[in-house]
Please model this.
Amino acid sequence: MRKIRVLVVDDAVVVRKIVTDTLGGDPDIEVAATAANGRIALQKIPQVNPDILTLDIEMPEMDGLQTLAEARKIYPKLPIIMFSTLTERGGAKTLEALALGATDYVTKPANVGSVSVAMQRIRDELIPKIKMFCAKSAGIEAPPKSIPKPTPRATPFIKRPPTRTPLIQRADILAIGVSTGGPNALAELFPTLPSDLPVPIVLVQHMPPFFTKLLAERLTSKSPLDIQEGKAGEKLVPGKAWIAPGDYHMVLEQKADGVYLKTNQDPQENSCRPAVDPLFRSVAEIYGAKTLSVILTGMGQDGLIGCEHVKDAGGQVIVQDEESSVVWGMPGFVARAGLADEILPLNQIGQKIISKLKVGR
Model:
């Protein structure tokens, strides 16, 4: 076993110091080098042979996007985590970075009040991702696609039948949950869905404020569907998609004239807000056996309990397979719990959704 070697790239001396000290305090990680801009970083990669880069976006001489584009030409498989600001501009640049091949991102712990709080944020958010992407090559525990046995729900409310959902079951809503690797997965999935999709789509992508609105706009530009950030009080209609807004859970509410969106800031679930589980629970409660749910690539197990509710209500569950997932965490938990009706590569999920939505119509 050896330590994971990290190259920290950021033009701010204070940020480099905080990140370096925090990463260096973890027994599985060492900071192999730091760089103040992308040009220096590209020179240092062959010298220090890092396992992973943390890459700032806004830098002089060569910024993060330019650095990423050049690094991908020479090191196509080197994990690169963007370190972005929690602003609309930072969100737009982050989505662009993911499209250019960044492995993932974390937001900088700005305005958190103290260095100790900033360091804790890095421990909570950056270090787990570094280990997830590099554990296998470094030989430490919990390789990125190794999924422990899921913890069963403490109080199951209905005994789940052992058989798969009947193929004759009609679906009246599509609910999607996704996290790490999600923006690119959604950018591949949504263009395969037609504009006249006969059901509404509700979606949770783990993202902070600003980012979810920008993601909706980006997906709309690439898709025949209208995709928006969810707002409380909007009525669900077929052929339209809503993404849960950053820092808010999104759930559904049945009214006399239809189903509406609600948002809240209830406590995080699975360390997330928005989280997949509360959305899926509300979908299953309202639509029952007419629910079609999809879990795509993502870290952690958010969506597992929600999919149990969907199956207990008689609905259907599709999960992305391990090979096509950036991280087989969320879909892996659902698959290993025996909840998946279909386990498919990403490039087959769109057509499977379309075929399932034709049933009963």
